[in-house]
Amino acid sequence: MGLVYSEPICQAAYDGDVRQLYHFLSEDPNGLNVQEPRTGDTPLIAACRRRNVVVVNYLLENQANVHLTNKKQRTCLHYVSKTSLSLLDYLLIALLMPILLLGYFLLLQKQRQSISVMTAVLSSRINVNAVDYKGNTALHYTCLRKSYHLVRLLLDRSADVNIKNNDGETPLDIATRLKFNKIVRMLQKTQ
Known about the structure:
55% helix; transmembrane; transmembrane helix; ANR22; Ankyrin_rpt; membrane
């Protein structure tokens, strides 16, 4: 289940196979920023789609270009911000919740994973206000996902709360519409 890339290095990054990435990069260092023909994803974007902090850190240490965008004009930061739980994650959480709160701990682990990947990506010189083809920034997506911790990380990096997407909504408008009051207060403090 998941994406299948025609570029082997993108697939290795998506699958979280650091050994395979090392092998590909030792053979061809230029493969670090290769873009998959169908989607335009880079290995870094592929790793961010899966929230794999080990692979993201490895690629960033090897100077992966964080500014590259795919065919939807999204950077790796957009995918960290867009990431939500998969259907399988929801099922596991629902099934394991009654059993010693294991579902709750799984949920916490997924949140920590997202925070770690976001922190790693933000440690680079990425443009936190980059917009995709819908005009959304990473802050728009974190507000849509009600990701308090990720919103705080973006605000700490001076994400612009006044950028309007193609629908004319700012991140504050989204949080207000969805009644995410804690995020609304966080965004209002920065204005």
